[in-house]
Design brief:
311 residues, alpha+beta, 6-stranded mixed beta sheet, two-stranded antiparallel ribbon, 10 helices, 36% helix, globular
């Protein structure tokens, strides 16, 4: 569905902002996304409220929303490219379960813990700084072993970077990329592990779009990421996420949420499967806010508005 075929209401949304409302390298929010057959957009007032809240924040924001029944969806800047931060850990998890299914690895397989990796920039060795990680106990286990399942739990629930790099190295970045491509989620582009500073300085980063993350989470939610049992296990892991200040904060407290956050300076993302009365996937990517409390509040506000429309 192109804008020229949209009803006047939708055209109004696309024109809601002028380019001057954003920084120079941004474009006017686009709603030029093909809807699923029979899908409806969220309520006009809700869409306007969300866009107004984003404009008020001064942030650059990508949003992708769709109910699991495919009957309601809404996208704003869903193909804008953002640094993926820790949301890239979702495809690492999917690839782990993919290789388990293929018999290449086992979840209870032990892996030696080491803190030594090769930079994508020049193949030089680098180590991770425990002070920059969300958890430090794994660093004390260097020389010991942990199972792939234990590392996956640490990678997703508390976003441990050392666990992520160990798994990415074990599974192979090319394999992770191939699985993302097979799921038609090419908006997610995994190039390397985390904290590769030399690569970062050269702009060699993991990137994502809101749409790419939505496609990956939809595949998990619908039991199609690998197979139904693997997808169920991935949902359980995502539901144990410890950082709940963004999307979950905009939902009723008893709502089950399976999600993954990502955070870097002036970047804050949340990508979630929301098990409301009418389940949905919601991805919000935020760039440009210095304080995480502000970006978290923005994501919670967007979630609250969309949730109310979807139920």
């Amino acid at each position: 569905m192109t804008l020229r075929h949209c009803p006047p209401i939708i055209l109004g949304f696309a024109l809601f902002f002028s380019p001057s409302a954003f920084t120079q390298n941004l474009t006017v929010p686009s709603l030029d996304y093909p809807a699923q057959a029979g899908a409806a957009l969220v309520d006009e007032k809700v869409a306007a409220d969300v866009l107004s809240r984003i404009k008020q924040s001064g942030a650059e924001v990508g949003v992708a929303f769709r109910t699991l029944d495919g009957k309601m969806e809404w996208f704003s800047r869903a193909d804008d490219v953002f640094h993926a931060a820790s949301t890239m850990k979702i495809p690492v998890m999917i690839e782990l379960f993919h290789q388990v299914r293929e018999g290449k690895v086992k979840l209870d397989e032990p892996l030696i813990i080491k803190n030594e990796f090769h930079s994508l920039a020049d193949d030089s060795l680098y180590t991770l700084d425990p002070a920059d990680d969300s958890e430090t106990d794994l660093y004390k286990a260097v020389g010991q072993t942990r199972t792939l399942s234990q590392l996956c739990e640490l990678m997703i629930t508390i976003s441990n970077n050392l666990a992520t790099n160990l798994l990415a190295q074990k599974l192979g970045v090319d394999n992770i990329r191939a699985t993302v491509h097979a799921l038609h989620a090419d908006g997610m582009n995994v190039l390397r592990g985390v904290e590769d500073n030399k690569a970062y300085e050269k702009g060699m980063n993991n990137t994502t779009t809101a749409r790419g993350l939505l496609i990956l989470l939809e595949a998990i939610a619908k039991g199609q990421a690998v197979d139904p049992d693997s997808s169920r296990q991935m949902v359980e892991i995502l539901a144990r996420q410890k950082f709940n200040e963004a999307i979950p904060a905009g939902l009723p407290s008893d709502t089950r949420v399976a999600h993954k956050t990502g955070e870097l300076p002036k970047l804050h993302h949340d990508a979630a499967i929301v098990y409301a009365r009418r389940p949905f996937v919601l991805v919000i990517l935020v760039r440009g806010l210095a304080e995480s409390k502000d970006s978290a509040a923005l994501m919670a506000d967007i979630t609250r508005r969309i949730y109310q429309s979807a139920q």
